Amino acid sequence: MRLVTPAPATDGYAKVRVLTSADPEMDAAKVSLGVLGVIYQVTLALQPLFKRSITFTERDDEDLPEQMSKFGYQHEFADITWYPGHGRAVYRIDDRLPMNASGEGVFDFIGFRATSTLLLGANRLAEELSERLGSSKCLTSRVAHAALSTTGYGLAPRSGWPFTGYPVVGPQHRMQASGGCLTSPEDALRTACPWDPRVRGSSLYHQTTFTLPVSRARAFIQDVQRLRDLNPESLCGVELYDGILMRYVKSSTAHLGKPATRGESADMVDFDMTYYRSRDPGRARLHEDVMEEIEQMGVFKYGGLPHWGKNRNLAFIGAASKYPGIPQFLRVKEAYDPDGLFSSGWSDMLLGVGGGAATKD
Question: In b/e form, how buried is each residue of 276-306, taking b as 16+ CB within 10 angstroms?
Answer without folding.
Answer: bebeeeeeebbbbebbebbbebbbeebebbb
